[in-house]
Amino acid sequence: xxxxxxxxxxxxxxxxxxxxxxxxxxxxxxxxxxxxxxxxxxxxxxxxxxxxxxxxxxxxxxxxxxxxxxxxxxxxxxxxxxxxxxxxxxxxxxxxxxxxxxxxxxxxxxxxxxxxxxxxxxxxxxxxxxxxxxxxxxxxxxxxxxxxxxxxxxxxxxxxxxxxxxxxxxxxxxxxxxxxxxxxxxxxxxxxxxxxxxxxxxxxxxxxxxxxxxxxxxxxxxxxxxxxxxxxxxxxxxxxxxxxxxxxxxxxxxxxxxxxxxxxxxxxxxxxxxxxxxxxxxxxxxxxxxxxxxxxxxxxxxxxxxxxxxxxxxxxxxxxxxxxxxxxxxxxxxxxxxxxxxxxxxxxxxxxxxxxxxxxxxxxxxxxxxxxxxxxxxxxxxxxxxxxxxxxxxxxxxxxxxxxxxxxxxxxxxxxxxxxxxxxxxxxxxxxxxxxxxxxxxxxxxxxxxxxxxxxxxxxxxxxxxxxxxxxxxxxxxxxxxxxxxxxxxxxxxxxxxxxxxxxxxxxxxxx
Length: 512
Known about the structure:
Elements: H1 12-36, E1 44-49, H2 50-54, E2 64-69, H3 72-89, H4 91-95, E3 105-109, H5 116-120, H6 125-130, H7 133-140, E4 143-146, H8 151-159, H9 164-192, H10 196-216, H11 224-227, H12 231-235, H13 242-257, H14 262-275, H15 288-295, E5 296-301, E6 304-309, H16 316-327, E7 331-333, H17 335-338, H18 348-352, H19 356-361, H20 374-400, H21 404-425, H22 450-454, H23 456-460, H24 463-483, H25 489-493, H26 499-502
Parallel strand pairs: 2-3, 6-7
Antiparallel strand pairs: 1-2, 1-4, 5-6
């Protein structure tokens, strides 16, 4: 496989799908709204998002269309009636199978889309630091076909670019993650060879450098599944991003081959840091401990200490100390990687915004899932069911589109999600990558996963074989969940039907 470039001009499929969506709304949905729900006509924006909006759609693309309410109260008041109205139009029959999902208008609000904080309060820096970047891109780079109230335009004015201090904080975050994960991967390669933890750490360094390239260009990065594919079109001619993007491509190109060796991996990671001016070859400067003691929380077990930042924007002193500590062999996580700046709660939103490794580190009761409540527990399992299904589909589509790095990256995410699910089945939490091993992954009693954990290259190199393995393991997981009453058979049969109830878009890419 070779990476397929993003196209500069809208593809034929993009234009076809835009035209079909616009016609469906103009000729069918809008007249029905004017007849039956006239009060909402000026309270909504209707947009086309994702690859069709970007102009990169192909024969495998879905048509993603959203009717967006500005106010949650309007959404709650009108969503049921509006959905009935749209369903009564039977658009899929009128337009045939325009794509896998058919002709569907999804109904959302800025609050449900996780965009209301910045829309209403862009002056609050904590809203910027916690904002999922791809969701900004998803809406701001969408293709509006109806926006009488100017919802799309107002968010573009208020949040169309990073504030300077937020941009710098995000750059510092990305630079530090490049170092912490490169050092982790090199150390693990030396200690245990090419295990999942070793390779996953290298991919985290590569994706951090891709994030940094978008930040250097002053651009919001798109959804992770498109981030690598669109990078050439979005970053290729940008002078400020060119050196960062070049460094990313060298590392990503090596990782995509899945023909890793310990000496080559260590060398390419060292080169990666050098090309970015983050040379980790020399000795640590020292003095990092005092800074981390003030700005991070230590979690200590028999294998050592893991430092976790307390704040999303911890400042230059923390980042300098974190990089020095990583070069000295310490383990440091940023708040953005674990959600450690949030209060751990047992609400659905609270659970989803704190990563499982952070719950493992925080020493929460290892058999606490029963205390979550039956309905909350089941909702969480519906999310897991959906997100594994979705990531397997991304692997399949990325392979068909020859998006090699993205394909490998999502293969590893599938393994992550399956491991997390197995840990949850044991009423536990998935440990950090640094604790993968016989004790940290003791819940793996059935060892088809041994190859995935100990020899990931053998599993991911052949995508067809990986998908066969992945769908089989996913099916076994679904069978177990259904048998235990944690997942209903309908959700197992049709994960897509649960997507709006679990609000997957808020959480699926928080900690990848």
